Amino acid sequence: MDTTITASTLSPTLYVGVEDMVRLVQRVGLPACIAGVAERIEAAFLRWNDFDKRARLACHSADGVIELMPIADAEHFTFKYVNGHPKNTRAGLPTVMAFGVLADVATGVPRLLSELTLTTAIRTAAMSATAARHLARPGSRVMALIGNGAQSEFQAIAFRDLVGIRELRLFDTDPAATAKLAANLAANLDGQGLSVTVCASIREAVQGADIVTTVTADKTNATILTPDLIAPGMHLNAVGGDCPGKTELHADVLRCGPVFVEYAPQSRIEGDVQQMPADFPVTEFWQVLAGQAPGRTSAEQVTVFDSVGFALEDYAALCFVHDTARALGLGREIDLVPQAVDPKDLFGLLRAPVDALRIAA
């Protein structure tokens, strides 16, 4: 029986590696990538009921967490593999590393295998800014950015372009991280249009801020923000609390105003609201977009976006990467899945001459 794989039997999987993603961002531009992913995130959240949703699956250890984040609609299934290991930077490794897959629901064929470490930074910033556009006080121009690590430049650019932030007030317990962020924004054209102030404390950073973004990495029940730091009208964008035992906000901060989340069953386990009783009221963000629940109701109101990262955002990001990479001719095709002429004869592939197999270069 002929067991040779042929080009007509199965479309190969597009592989977008780190180098491909860097080229994609350089060609499209980081601001345009953030805006493109933000547009897809909002569109996906407006189709909330079309998706088969679940909280992510997590394996925790003393040093960090490794997670799988699946989601599907009638057309596509996606998942992300992602870790969170705060101690990694001491060994020269990223705190967060990720990759993901986009597959056809009808056949199960994987269409895309992509890096998601860079892409996760883009989609997280896009999600933060999308939420702030609907929850922050109109005309917000000043943001405190607490935590100046790997995510911070992306957050700064997203809030500049999508929200209108013009002044950043920076603080990190590691002065080198703040210096890195300030230097990157000053040296990179993507950072133009932002006035940067380096602050000596969280209190100094939040003074006069319209929006406070916390994006810290330590896996601990921290209290980055306490009630005495919160001023009327602030929007709090809490990004760093994203697994059990990891928080950024004092519990009383969550009582300062309405709390918005991505997916309540996941957020109650992983978000800052894990500190609160099971009946503590939260609003899923999609309800605000769909007009089913109010967002901000007054200029003096404090709003909290308790963001943990949800698979629907990765779905939007993977669709953006797939379509953009295809349009730009980036990435390469790989044979991730074998197929013989007779799909029931998988064993027969082992008898075929190696040079008869179609293997991507």
Brief account:
This protein has 361 residues and is of the alpha/beta class.
Structural description of this entry:
A hairpin with a 5-residue loop joins strand 5 (98-104) and strand 6 (110-115). Helix 2 (30-45) packs across helix 4. The chain has helices at residues 18-28, 30-45, 117-135, 152-162, 175-187, 202-206, 264-270, 285-289, 311-328, and strands at 13-16, 57-60, 65-72, 76-84, 98-104, 110-115, 142-146, 167-171, 195-198, 211-214, 221-225, 235-238, 247-249, 259-261, 283-284, 303-306, 332-334. With 361 residues, it is α/β, with parallel strands linked by helices. The protein is globular and about 70 Å long. Strands 9-8-7-10-12-16-14-15 form an eight-stranded parallel β-sheet. A seven-stranded mixed β-sheet has the order 2-3-4-5-6-1-17. The chain has a two-stranded parallel ribbon with strand order 11-13. The protein contains nine helices and 17 strands. The protein folds into two domains: 13-118 and 313-356, ornithine cyclodeaminase, domain 1 (2-Layer Sandwich), CATH 3.30.1780.10; 137-309, Rossmann fold (3-Layer(aba) Sandwich).
